[in-house]
Amino acid sequence: MRAVVKLGGALFRREPNVTSLKGMGRALGGFVEDGNQLVLVAGGGENARTYIATARKLGGDESTCDLLGIQITRANAELVRLAIGSMASSKIPTTLSDLPHFVGSGKAVVMGGLQPGQSTNAVAALAAEITRAEILVNGTDVDGVYTEDPKKNPKAKLIRSVHVDKLLSWAMGGEVFAGRYELLDPLAIKIMQRARIPTRFVSLGDPGNIIAALQGKDIGTKVVYS
Amino acid sequence: MRAVVKLGGALFRREPNVTSLKGMGRALGGFVEDGNQLVLVAGGGENARTYIATARKLGGDESTCDLLGIQITRANAELVRLAIGSMASSKIPTTLSDLPHFVGSGKAVVMGGLQPGQSTNAVAALAAEITRAEILVNGTDVDGVYTEDPKKNPKAKLIRSVHVDKLLSWAMGGEVFAGRYELLDPLAIKIMQRARIPTRFVSLGDPGNIIAALQGKDIGTKVVYS
Amino acid sequence: MRAVVKLGGALFRREPNVTSLKGMGRALGGFVEDGNQLVLVAGGGENARTYIATARKLGGDESTCDLLGIQITRANAELVRLAIGSMASSKIPTTLSDLPHFVGSGKAVVMGGLQPGQSTNAVAALAAEITRAEILVNGTDVDGVYTEDPKKNPKAKLIRSVHVDKLLSWAMGGEVFAGRYELLDPLAIKIMQRARIPTRFVSLGDPGNIIAALQGKDIGTKVVYS
Amino acid sequence: MRAVVKLGGALFRREPNVTSLKGMGRALGGFVEDGNQLVLVAGGGENARTYIATARKLGGDESTCDLLGIQITRANAELVRLAIGSMASSKIPTTLSDLPHFVGSGKAVVMGGLQPGQSTNAVAALAAEITRAEILVNGTDVDGVYTEDPKKNPKAKLIRSVHVDKLLSWAMGGEVFAGRYELLDPLAIKIMQRARIPTRFVSLGDPGNIIAALQGKDIGTKVVYS
Amino acid sequence: MRAVVKLGGALFRREPNVTSLKGMGRALGGFVEDGNQLVLVAGGGENARTYIATARKLGGDESTCDLLGIQITRANAELVRLAIGSMASSKIPTTLSDLPHFVGSGKAVVMGGLQPGQSTNAVAALAAEITRAEILVNGTDVDGVYTEDPKKNPKAKLIRSVHVDKLLSWAMGGEVFAGRYELLDPLAIKIMQRARIPTRFVSLGDPGNIIAALQGKDIGTKVVYS
Amino acid sequence: MRAVVKLGGALFRREPNVTSLKGMGRALGGFVEDGNQLVLVAGGGENARTYIATARKLGGDESTCDLLGIQITRANAELVRLAIGSMASSKIPTTLSDLPHFVGSGKAVVMGGLQPGQSTNAVAALAAEITRAEILVNGTDVDGVYTEDPKKNPKAKLIRSVHVDKLLSWAMGGEVFAGRYELLDPLAIKIMQRARIPTRFVSLGDPGNIIAALQGKDIGTKVVYS
Question: Structural domain tally of chain D?
Fold first, then answer.
């Protein structure tokens, strides 16, 4: 099976949780050992947000802020690579055109961001497209897509299935600032839409969720195309 | 003055019009000689579309098609560089982070596409943002933004001024396919929106239009932010 | 078996023939699947000639024209890569010293031009030398080397076998202009001569010709070294 | 005047002090505006230490930990670049051999770490050597070199002048771990010794200290060579 | 088994001994064929010393001299690669972070120097660390570490085992000049110390010595860590 | 004035003559200080020949031998760069497309070889073409082109002027082996012919010869095009 997993910033706290990283690494490494093709895209998390906020206060434009955030996502990708250990590729691709060269080595390929103006969600969607992934799992700090922000409103309800057009209309509401690309980045959704990539949003809290989603179990929120 | 000009695919016909290219080169070279900072972004045109269509028929995914289109935009950029002559930088930047290094040499910097998933309109918007351009002129094959496609309906009316939110809502209607990124690519508009880049859409038919727009004349369609 | 095939510009028409490309891709992919080592070098064709002619009219020097032609050969190489599909390497080498790294992956390696002043025929000869190819097949738009131009004179006779010295003396007659490197580029012949690479010139019209030549069948024109 | 300043990790707290960065940027920018040549080397600070510690817990070897720390120093360098603004070079060199190419543009060049096994102190010494700097100022979180750790023992006395051999013998006492390269990294001292680079250790607490040291004032600790 | 072998400059005479190189290549190639992982680091030898001395006389700083020496070590590495033949990787890594990508291909990886300020002994130690080598064999022109210079004093005695701290204190005595990095480069020893890499110094005179050391035989001088 | 000078291998003896290099550096630096644009191309000399001969004995193919020779020419270029000092560019371009970017900085640009299959004479001709040089001076170990080898036959006569076609017919006589590319490399002559570059062959023995040729004095052998 060919898969892409986006590992949201929630995995990359200021003081990283080594136990979580190890657990995630073990689960993902096992998935690769079972003969599956896997690309992982690490998000930015708190450190990316701090660097970007500082850069902005120092007068940096948004593209420069994006570049700084990308550097941090690559450092995060390095941590994921180490957590997976021998089942991970020894290097991190930094352009999309390099990615196919890395994939198929029988190792998990880990990457961070690529270019200003692209969230790591968009990178994950492009990676899924160019590696012809059969599934894209987007791991976040909540259980999927909700009717409202579940951290603010405990009555928010998890949506089990959402049409890509719906996602897109939600996405177009927000503004695009470096480091605050939301779950619902419009470019990412446009790519998902053009390539019709089967996608699920699940929680990163337990590596088992990611594996379940990779195995096609009905967990989190599923994106529907027709 | 710091400016970015997007040169639409209309300038890059299958059998390029050398006279048009020379005229455009002379006008833009003069603008730089007057002490202005200029970044030019070349689109793909017919050749890009043909390569992309062939690649798609050969089973290429959209990201690979994008990469092929980018190669052609860079060949087009090379033609623009030659048309401008001694007032153009001797090399074409291929990443956004290289761009600031090229700018400020007192020469026009010419570039093509950068990454899959980004139209050259998005590249132009990012280039405007990172070089802190005071104006972005988007040269196309029509006189600006119309109420309808002016090539299909002669009664289509030119819109002299359009709000960025309006542009964005139109943009979200269409699908994103390599080589068919429209004028109204949503990512490009999102970048314009976040950086509030003063932008005009004008016709490439006469280099004078581009220069007029650069000089702040009221020509074509202006994008309004508030 | 270790082989290099030059795919002449005849395969890369302005409006590429997808059926021809697919047929060629299938035949060459099969040759690799049979356990052979294969390097393919794509020529420039009509599009390269158009870009070069335009660049020259814009005042470009021959080296810059060469560089532009090389960009187009690489786009052509990308099409060949797609036509071959899963049996082709995922990336195109752009320097000769990278080539050995790509070869031996069990995949066909596709490349375009490398450097100004070198025709893709010279690239094919250098690639044959550095990969220790046992045969170099040069696919062109005619059936081999003729006594005269067979497109101009129907009485032109195909030469079944020609000494490398003879080839060289013919080659030295013509001038070397970007995009008009003839079959008989002197540098290419000098490399063939120094490495004594078994070489055949055959027609690209039918993929079967290329395969036949690879299998050592007596087809087209053979180059003799002693 | 040609100078190199090492900006110790103390400037790069987990929650960066924007006011400090701005003040430092303004002072250093002014020094460049006065016609001086300046190379700045950013250290790693708390974020580098956290990433390195995490990597080590995930089983990363010291070289990989070093590489991760280098990524963070480059993100820090980016912040310094922004703090200096228009008087800073637009790009960060990542190899020593690129450095001379950047210097002499009349802009401050900012860089981070270069290679595993080299502290940013060693990078600063190498940068001073290759740019023929007349002074190397090493900015740390204390006022210079002390008889004991001044943070642990308030009776520790500042040493106003120290012989390079003495520094070296102290340096050889400690172990070399990524992220804990001390002020007294032996490689850095060996480079200082071979190039006899006039060096001062001063506090980063006030940009005025750095400028004073650059102007040859007797501040902090001076390294003596004979 | 995972091993690193440093091939000292003694193997790279002004007029290289082709028979020695072939013998060494055959022995090392055989070691790889037996299923071992091997990284080779070539030193500079006479040619490096000559280029460095000339550069210094022309006013080159030590970092530039180092860079020149590194170019020669890479040319030497190329000779080793050729001597090993088909069991050697087809390319020479030029950064430490690229090394893990090369290793594990089942081929010997050959490299030269990496960065100014690092001897090839330090490179060998870093390579051993990042590839988790079980042994580092340092091949020199004498049989190991002696009480005195055996070329000057025939009564010098070979030391069969030496503590790393002892090595380090000796190393700190000498100065560090490009091209005269001694056996006992302090940085190299610091890296050995931090990674506790099992290390032996043996003579390059006979490839059998290198192989014996790789097989764990008690030959030359062994470094002891506790 | 825009000029290219090829510095033949005669300047790069096994034991380089520092006085000669310094004299040449001073003369060429002065030429640049007078406001001229200058590109220098360093040949390989004895060291290149030794490395190539060793590589060939170790079974290296000619392309690999060429690559090794190119590495040595780049080390030689570094020596020339140092000899010129502050009037030389700080870096050596390694591709032809990078060259225009270096030229025009008001500094001499020094380079070595570029690609297998191209002698440094061909590189010099390509460099002259792409920088639109008004003169190409080819410095060798004899006073110009002779009727016979002047080192073997003292009666050999210097030819003051030779037609490019004559040069080419002579060039086609010899074989092309790495490291033995003669003065009369056919590719170099073909490039001279297509760009009609005014060229002189003079002796390297005295820097005054090179300067005289650059100033248009009638010295050595002149190439005639019509």
Answer: 1
